[in-house]
Amino acid sequence: MKIYNDEGKVSWKSWLYKDVGLQGMVFADPESPWRELIGLFLEKKKELRLDMWEKYPSEEADAVMKPLTAWIEKGFSVDEDQASWVLGHVRHLDCAVLHSLLADS
After folding, report:
1. How many angstroms separate the CA atoms of 38 and 71, rounded?
2. Could you tell me which of 30, 51, 42 has the C-alpha nearest to residue 100?
3. pTM of the model
4. DSSP for 49-81?
5. Is the C-alpha dihedral spanning 18, 22, 27, 32 positive or negative?
6. Beta bridge partners of 26
7. Beta-bridge partners for 19
């Protein structure tokens, strides 16, 4: 962790030093016992687009989210300038449905 101390001049904004391939400075070896242990979980998470930091293509998630987004766009006023839509309405829906509701299941 020397890289994070005052001499390293690395900002603590980057909280992840090591992760599974999304935004860490170093990554766990895909062939490691740990990655093999959590591999199925990571694939399911990727398949269902449950990770807020990366948006992988997913026909299964699109089959749910695209009609929901279209329904909201058709029936409700979507003002992208409103504070509650600061991330954009599609990202806001992804956060609510995929990253909160489903990821918590």
Report:
1. 36
2. 51
3. 0.59
4. T--TT-----HHHHHHHHHHHHHHHHHS---TT
5. positive
6. 18
7. 27
Place of tokens 């979507």: 78
Q: Quick check: 40 and 31 in contact, CB under 8 A?
A: no
49 — alpha (psi -120 to 50), left (phi > 0) or beta?
Answer: left
Angle, vertex CA 98, rays to CA 90 and CA 102, nearest 5? 155
| pLDDT tens figures, 6-60 | 665 666 555 566 677 767 778 888 899 988 998 898 888 888 888 777 778 888 8
CA distances from 55 to 2, 6, 98 (A): 32, 34, 11
CA gap 17, 1 in Å, rounded: 8
Residue 20 tokens read as 């599974």
What does DSSP say about strands 18-19 and 26-27: parallel, antiparallel, or unpaired? parallel
Of 38, 55, 63, 42, the closest CA to residue 94 belongs to 55
